[in-house]
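Re: weekly structure request thread

Next one in the queue (165 aa):
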Amino acid sequence: MTRKTRIRAALVTATAVVTATAVSAGVSAAGPEKSSEPTRKQIAALFDGWNAALRTGDAETVADRYADDAVLLPTVSNRVRTDRAGIVDYFEHFLLNKPVGKKVRTIVNVLDRDSALDTGVYAFTLTDPVTGAKRVVEARYTYEYEKRGGVWKIVNHHSSAMPEG
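Done, posted below.
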């Protein structure tokens, strides 16, 4: 091995060691990816945003809370809604009753930093658009949320009136 070859080999080895050290240091400095898992309280509060969207009286605003491929099994309709048009259609009719929701019992299960379930019981005060008479409908609910593009969206929403009611 010539002197020139040994110098090249030493430089290649030194470069490899420096590169490996720098990469290792960069990984160590960055540390493990921090989990930004939502709290149960944060997931439960997503209902408040949905309920506020109801109060706008605008079906499009409510539908914005749902993912494009969401499934809605609504309380006061026998039709399963599997696209935005169906969800908007449902809320155009439901919003005529000026619904005001209130959670009675909630159970939140955070699955990971991008998905969670909120299940329980809620009650809606509905106002008949013709007579103005108010009635309360209590229902079981499940919201499945996914964070998509940094925004929490409803991907599955099931609501059914309590069987005893």
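The chain has four helices and five strands. The radius of gyration is 27 Å.
Next request, please.
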